Sequence to fold (715 residues):
Amino acid sequence: MTKTNSTIFHFVIIFMLILEIKIQLSEESEFLVDRSKGGLTHVPKDLSLETTILDLSQNDISELQASDILLLSKLRVLRISHNRIQYLDMSVFKFNQELEYLDLSHNELEKISCHSTVNLKHLDLSFNAFDALPICKEFGNMSQLEFLGLSATQLQKSSVLPIAHLHINKVLLVLGDHYGENEDPESLQDLNTESLHVVFPAGKESHFALDVSVSTAVSLELSNIKCVLDDNGYSYVLSVLSKLQNNSRISNLTLNNIETTWHSFITMFQLVWHTSIEYFSISNVKLQGRLQVRDFDYSDTSLKALSIHQVVSEMFSLPQSYIYKIFSNMNIQNFTVSGTHMVHMVCPSQMSPFLHLDFSNNLLTDMVFNNCGTLTRLETLSLQMNQLKKLANIVHMTKEMKSLQQLDISQNSLSYDENEEYCSWTISLLSLNMSSNILTDSVFRCLPPRLRVLDLHSNRKTSIPENVIRLEALQELNLASNSLAHLPGCDSFSSLSVLIIDFNSISNPSAHFFQSCQKIRSINAGNNPFQCTCDLFQGTQTRHRARNTSLHELQRTLQFHAFISYSEHDSAWVKNELLPNLEKEDIRICLHERNFVPGKSIVENIINCIEKSYKSIFVLSPNFVQSEWCHYELYFAHHNLFHEGSNNLILILLESIPMYSIPSSYHKLKTLMAQRTYLEWPKEKSKHGLFWANLRASIRIKLMYQAKETDHTYI
Fold:
């Protein structure tokens, strides 16, 4: 096999492994049991005793008994929402001591009996038929409670007292259809929560005296608001918002599902403008009535971000220029208007403080912000899903945006005429998303010169022309879902490190690609018609022989005692605790900062390091499950090509990871944590010595191969 063919084969193997990872991630874990939408009338009797997550939502179950889940001692998550349960005795969970997450929302519950309860973190009783708040005194023992969902028709201040001492992250309160104005306005005064979401009865005029300003919440969300002015111009909703001016705690306000007039709509913004609120979001709005032109007072505001989503107006003759003027002159940093059928936006009348603008999913044309010189501070602009057609106009638009770094013009109808003379982008642009347009190969002749990230997926490109603009700073290129027949070379992209080319027509990776793209560390090339060559059959046999290599033979090739995988957020513990305690005992550790070989891809380096290490140590924490590369490392280690089947994995639990918090794609991690014994980092310093002794004992082996000094340069 020639050196060139060997290189191509190596990359093809990597393509296959990445594809295999995606297939593995889609497989259902044996400990997750999903019986939702099955027409069940009772809890199934054939559930595995190993079940940790059970989903029985959207069925016709009318009762839940202790015998139904008695033997599920490992159950951590139970979802039984959208059923017909009318009564619940919480003692049915007394044998499920691992239960942390319980969702009973959207049932027909009228009463619950508490007795002793498990120490839940998530309890959802919302959207049920309770008259009074279903808070038992036993709820006060749930010291770990993070989320609490409640339903009630009547609110009494005394009902909250059993949990007043708890600090709950979020409380969802759904008010029944008969909730009225004769309630205690301060009924939520003793509710101790960071985030409060109140859902009012849908479709009814909002007559409520609830004073949400007395809550301890920092984040407040109100849903189902019908705001109608009486003959004196009074509205309960506007009264609530006016009271927020006296509350300095609330900094986040969200209003959902609103039916009101244009006059009240603008009044809402004006009231919020003079409060302590920093982030205001309003969505799903139905507007009626005429809009009265009046001045808007922009002075004295704490507002940093305003988001408006999904607005429908029953009036077709509105002074739109007045609305655009109000919006464009807002003295805030972040502004979003999406899904509103907005056809234009005027240029701010003076130098604007806007840093981030999102006008996605509207009807804007490519004449927006034409010759606009007051957006010089703008850094991010999204015009996704509009009516943009001519790329040259967009290029001209950016000319005066001296600070613009990120531009999203995807999902439009943009095209580029290669005979177009104007192609002078703002020099500051670093990230450009032009995906899902009708841009052909000619677009490569008009691109911003300093780009680092370029997304051109789902266009009409068949190749990359030779006479393209040199993008020497480009690091990430997405060409997926086009009609490319060949892998692009990196002659014009000398810094390219991430390439996405799946869903094209590539059959044979060219030698020129691998020779010119030395800095690529990640490549996604699935769903291409790669041809299977003799080299690839030959390589498969080599892989098969390697799996049968004995441990004695492996000792001759192993260079390290252990490869360490961890999140960068946990690097301080690895470098200050783990490495000193292992390496002082002459244990050789493979670390990506010092042992990855410059010029090789990250995937290739991961495979090489795992193959040359006797063990693979994984430092598990909530940070770990957020790292995509940690997930890849775990996959490759579990399927070690050279000694698969051996006991080569060591799991260290640095911080507790609740099973329900692990993303659904991490089936492998969930399985390993359930099946394998792991070392838990003790908080007590007196137990550290035993921890290190156990860890060192698990990776002791005589390495016959003397590792050479490695280049510690990390790219």
